[in-house]
User: Fold this.
Amino acid sequence: MALSLEVAGLGPRALAALVDAVILFVCWVMGLVLYSVAGDLLREVQALSVAGQLAAVIAVLLSGWGWDVAWEVLGRGQTPGKRALGLRVVRSDGAPVGLAESLVRNLLRAVEVPLGYAPGVLAVALSPRRQRLGDLVAGTLVVRERRYDLSRYDPAAGADPRFASLRGRAGALLAAGEFERLADFLDRRAELDAAPRARIAALLSAALSARAGSPAPDRDLAEPFLEALVAAYAEGR
Amino acid sequence: MTADGPGPSRASGVGAFVRARRTSWERLAELVSRVDSGRLSLDEVEELDRLYRRAAGDLARARAAFPGTDAEGYLSQVAARAYGALYRRRRGGLGAALRLARDAAPAAFQAHLPALGLAFAFLAAGLAGGALAVALDPLAAQALVPPEVRDAVAAGHLWTEGLLSAAPGFTGSAIAHNNVSASALVFALGLTFGAGTAWLLFANGLLLGAVAVHCLRGGLGGPFFGFVAAHGPAELSAFLLAGQAGFVLAGALVDPGEWPRGAALAARGREAARLLAVAVPVLALAALLEAVISADARFGAAVKGVAGLGLGAALWAWLLSGGGRTPR
Assistant:
């Protein structure tokens, strides 16, 4: 079984980078404000100044080279920008990236940034799997994760109050496989002509309502009855 | 099979297919996301494996019967994530970093000693060239030594004075950032079949050699070596490691062996990464030493020398002796 991942193109990736840049910028502004306030304090306490220096070294490294690496390793392949755009860095076999891969793909920016990312843009545009130079060397991909809403396949809302008594009993009314055939009919009834569609609905609703021990619904209520039955069954599973 | 039924036949609609299977797909997705964030019980792992196999089968059916639907897209995504969760090699995190430091980095280092030799040769050639040029012809300093260094030496002091009195923390972080950037470039230029890596190593050696001899001639030999003693060994070692990593990449391009160049590059890239994972923290440490200790007159040259050489020696000893086991 070949698995396929949707790779992300240039646009979302550039946007994600922009989001990260904005976040970093805000962090820096806040950091500078903090530093200017705390700097005087730190100078008073000599022992703390080494800690302050250490913090500054770490902060600069993190915002420069460490930002992407730290987020990708600890955040399952997502920086905040990538998360916002539904992107994720994965190894080419689909597994999450590790420290080594992330380090390589990000350190290779060293040849891309001075050239205005031109090599990266070209590589993303030309490579079949949309890989930047860093991705090619690290063996990584940037994939796009979509949000799929499976509830659109739910049976048409069958909360018809007239058939509320079906709730909780539908599981006993349908034998294995019947649910699917019934749902199949409801899915595809629009393809049928009006007469056979009404006849099938009437037959099904008569048979099933007999099982439920209730009188067959009127002709125009046959389909709402079936919808309610399917919905109650799906709910009860 | 119980309430789920025997599964939709090919003719049935995508809606019935999704309704019949959705519960197990969503359970699979939930288990997969828990693989990343926490732990699973043994039963859950078995359930994950079973659900993955079913989902893979469902995906095959969806591809054939309902290509392009949301159902297929969803299944494709969930199955790929489950595959990644099931077949990943190891968990990441702190444990992986420790394994990298203990086993993988020294092993990669030892496996690519020729690349290290090459890096050392270019750096040493630059050092010797710069030193010789300035020693033989003081005018060469005009070309090889940066003007601010020349001005400072002419005035009888090192250019580092005043460097760190202002804001040591920021100076240190600027140094760290620059050094990591330079090392990243040395590594990345391995993609130019090693030419860029070789040139950068040579050019940096040239600069260092020329500055050293220029300081010596200016009567500042003591202060100069006192300045570089603390951070120099570690910084040069990390730079050499980055050069080694660059030549490892270049090796994949020059001689990919039986592999396509892209595959060889990805394989060697992983090796190179292990070297970089050592070089980058060492550079940060060296920058800290440079900012805090190197320019501080309160520490004597002996203290700096012992600290610097000790750190360098520890690094090399670790790389040469560590990693009895080959990674993976």
In short: Residues 1-12 of chain B have pLDDT under 50 and may be disordered. Residues 106 and 318 of chain B are 7 Å apart (CA to CA). Chain B has two domains: 14-87, 94-321.
